[in-house]
Amino acid sequence: MTSHLIIPDTHASPDFNNDRFTWLGKLTVDLKPDVVIMLGDWVDMPSLCSYDKGTKGYEGRRYKKDIDAGLDAQEKFFAPIKAAKKRLPRLVMLEGNHEHRIIRAISSDAAHLDGIISIDDLKYKEFGWEYVQYTGTTPGIIVIDSIAYAHYFTSGVMGRPISGEHPAYSLLTKQYMSCTQGHVHITDYCVRTTANHKHIHGLIAGVYQDYYANYAGEANDLWWKGVIYKTNVKKGEYDPRWISLESIKKEYK
Description:
By secondary structure, the protein is of the alpha/beta class. The chain is built from 7 helices and 11 strands. The chain is globular. The chain starts with a strand and ends with a helix.
């Protein structure tokens, strides 16, 4: 049996401090997970947001600042782990739609940006992450201990993210196996039993972000903030433990 530490969307941004990444590194040292799985959107990349381009709020955003925020977050996360001089867990980083903004920007203006900006600017592989890229226009999937992980899973051939009133249940009805995703920032959990008495787990993991996102408005209050620690992981089954950002801050600040 193994253990998985699940980190949902962290959205490192140049507009907010990265203290929560230091706390997360300290938590990782204490938990000693076999695998750390970051579900994507480690960085926010507001400079490449296409939704509010041209508005007043867009002014002053810079690509380099976004990249520096992501690098600083990784340095803060890994500092306690390296200081502990323990064996590093397996580190898996899924590409989220916010990282994918870099790919989309290059694709839309290759003449000016190809070879100038790159996913590699975030140095994920240099920090030791196994990086799972998008497949076409949808997030890549990796299966670890019979659990499928993705930034989000699609609801059908149109490639839209699974969401709705009961997203964890929808994961199981669409994927037919244990699976975990981030992206929607809420948390939801569902367990079903197959005909051969196997439990399959659908999990929406929330968000690991401690600042108010102006774009989301009242939806900020719907988000669950923290990480999820899976113990006794075997053949797609596990015991989940929700660890809130508030409790992590209280313990490690």
